[in-house]
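Try it yourself: sequence plus nicotinamide-adenine-dinucleotide, in.
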Amino acid sequence: MSTTIGFLGLGHMGAPMAANLVRAGYEVLAFDPVPAAREQAEQDGARVVGAAAETAAADLVITMLPNGELVLEVYAELFTAAKPGTLFIDCSTIDVADAKSAAELAVAAGHRALDAPVSGGVAGAAAGTLTFMVGGDAADFAAALPVLEVMGGKVVHCGGSGVGQAAKICNNLLLGISMIALSESLVLGEKLGLSHQSFFDVVSTASGQSWALTSYCPVPGPVPTSPANNDYQPGFATALMTKDLGLAANALRGNNVDGQLGLLAAEIYTRFNRTDAGRDFSAIVTDIRERSDSPSSEG
Ligand code: NAD
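Structure, out:
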């Protein structure tokens, strides 16, 4: 039996993900309010429908939307139109609390739901090598697996509803903090006469080692593929890091965690985002350098 997939949200991530599903032989009922996104999906071989609710004719429905409010809105619109027991898979990055609400509402409406946020960015979406972090029932995870494997290189069942989103924000909380920490350390090294290459040669194999340094070095030179070598073109845009740290900050507060560094990292990126939203998040090193050179912080 062939599976039909509804796909809502054909943006930077959703468009290539939907295209990979078409390529794998699925019939994709696609919707996005933006005409250019619909045209692209049509060219990619999807069956574009005129309204969100029409995607509910599918056997399973995937959403790849900007935020949790929209996911809840779209779900409310689709639940009445969908066949009983339809599996809803939300791949957007949203608040853990919204993900749990979405799943509860789906179950209350007689459906099934998974949260399945991703990492790997636009390049991973195009290559079909995303990492999926999935929250929800084991049986629903098993049903979703063949579809997720088309779009992903790694698919991990993390736990119950909302726990996929938890994995996503815990990782990005750590990444945001470690990029700031690394940048402060690099700028201190600069002030003390330590070259970027010497810093890299020592720290990459010492106890301060991190993925931010060895795979995504925020200064040009030591890691030729990092965005620093390409004028900080994203990569992973500051706007997205700021969004994820905001979700992490909500979760820290909501769960009474003494997350002082996480809350500060969210503030630091929120400030940087006001001027540099479209640059790669590793460009935070340039902000730290500039602020370190300003007269008010000298002396
Ligand atoms: P995007 O803004 O490019 O795409 C979102 C799409 O959703 C847009 O095309 C928009 O028109 C569409 N949309 C809005 N309302 C809709 C509705 N009611 N029905 C159908 N479509 C609707 O965003 P993106 O970069 O593709 O990111 C999507 C999600 O993936 C976000 O939650 C983001 O945080 C997450 N994410 C993005 C990246 C990345 O590198 N871009 C990486 C990991 C996770």
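One thing you can check immediately is this: Residues 8-14, 31-34, 37, 52, 64-66, 70, 74, 92-93, 118-119, 121-122, 236, 240, 243 surround nicotinamide-adenine-dinucleotide (CB under 6 Å).
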